Prior knowledge:
Domain HTH araC/xylS-type: 171-268
CATH superfamily of the largest domain: Jelly Rolls
Low-confidence stretches: 279-284
Organism: Paenibacillus borealis
Helix content: 40-55%
Number of helices: 10
Protein name: AraC family transcriptional regulator
Largest sheet: 6 strands, antiparallel
Keywords: DNA-binding, Transcription, Transcription regulation
Distance between the termini: 78 Å
Number of domains: 2
CATH architecture of the largest domain: Sandwich
Radius of gyration: 23 Å
Mean pLDDT: 89
Amino acid sequence: MTREVRTVVYDTDLKLEAYRFEGIMQKFPNHFHDYYVIGFIEQGKRYLVCNHEEYILNSGDVIIFNPQDPHACEQLDGRTLDYRCINVEPEIMRQYVLEITGAGDLPRFTPTVLYQSELALSLHELHRMLLEEQSDFQKEELFLFLLEQLLREYSDAELPSPNRELTTEIKSICQYIESHYMESITLNQLTALTGLSKYHLLRLFTKQKGISPYCYLETIRIDHAKRLLEQGMLPIEVALLTGFSDQSHFTNFFKKLIGLTPKQYMRIFTTRQTETKPSPEITS
C-alpha cells in the first residue's frame, strides 16, 4: 500500500498556506472553502465537479477555486494523487490585488481548470520555495508575477496600463544591488529606496532591464563568484562571500547560469596555472 504524505506549511512572509498531498486516494465530498485555492496536479487522474460543471484533471492541469465555490472530486484511474496548492485568505488576496491593480476589489477567477497550463511550472517552483521556507525575495517576486498573470488572463480584475518608465528609481536599485550583493536583500529594502510598491517595482525593473530584480542580483553574485573562483578560492568560501544562502543554492544557480559547477569552473583556472608554472631549473 502506498504511503500517504500530507505536508502543510504557512509562509509568514507572503502569508500563504502551502499544501502538498502525495500518494492519496481520498474522495472529497461536495464542499467549499472561504479562501482562494490555486493548485495543480502533479500525478494522477481526477474527476472534479465545481459549480455544477464537470472536469477531468490530469498531470499539469492548474485548478483555481474562488471562495465559496462548491466542489467535489475523486480518483478515476485507481492510482494515487500527487497534488500541490497554495491557499490565500480573501483579505490577503485583497492586499495583493490592491498593490497590482490599484483597486481593492476581490477578483473572481474563471475558468476553474487551466488545462496543461504553463503556469504549473511557475506554481511548482513557488510551492517548492514555500515548503523549503526560502527566505530571500525570489519567492515574493515569483508570486507577484504569477498573480499578475492570473489576474490579467483569468479574472474580472482590471489591470492598469504601464506607467512611465522611472529610470532614476531603477538606476538606484541597480546601484544598491551592486553595492550590497553579498548581503541578504529584501523587496522591502528596494521599495524603501524608491517609494514604489513591490509589484510596480518588479514590473518597471523587468521592463527596463529585461531581467527581474532577483535574477539581476543573482547574476551580479555569479559575476563576482567567477572572479573569486578564478583566483583558486574554494566554492564553499565563495558562496559565503557572494551572498548565497548555502553552497547548494550557489552550485545550482551557478550551473544553471554558467553550465558548469563552481568546482568545474575553478579547475579550469587551477589547471591552467599548474600548466603554465615554470619548471624548476636543474643544476649539476
